[in-house]
Amino acid sequence: MDPHFQAIYLERVTQEFANELDRIRTADDFRPDSVPVLVAALQQGAALYSPEQQARIVGRQDETDKVVDTADASDAFSSDGSETSSSRSSEASSGSSSS
């Protein structure tokens, strides 16, 4: 698995599930030695993406890092890794304004 993709994936998952992760972390039965188990469970979701999807997401992330703040770029992809219509629209409008 591409380590860059894994980092992007984990960042996105932790942002999307921030409230749930906080509830787990603050639960009475949560122990510090549970952290590796939780991280491993979150990482398992990255295996659902094909190598082609991973490469596309990593490439797109590299492009967005150059153009916009990463917080704004996180909404450029749907949960399956495909581009959303809003990200395609912004690309089209930015492409038409260049000379």
What report would you give on this structure?
This protein is mostly helical and 99 residues long. The protein has one domain (3-96). It is built from six helices and no strands. The protein is elongated, with a radius of gyration of 16 Å. The chain starts with a helix and ends with a helix. Mean pLDDT is 75; it is low at 68-73 and 84-99.
Q: Which characteristics define this entry?
A:
elongated; mainly alpha; 99 residues; disordered C terminus; single chain
Gist?
The chain has 99 residues and is mainly alpha-helical.
Q: Quick one: how many beta strands?
A: 0
Class from secondary-structure proportions? mainly alpha
Radius of gyration: 16 Å
- Output mean pLDDT: 75
Give the terminus-to-terminus CA distance: 39 Å
Continuous helix count: 6
Name the overall outline.
elongated
Helix content: 55-70%
**Main β-sheet, in a few words?**
none
* Strand content range: under 5%
Low-confidence stretches: 68-73, 84-99
Q: What count of structural domains?
A: 1
Reading the helices and strands in chain order gives HHHHHH
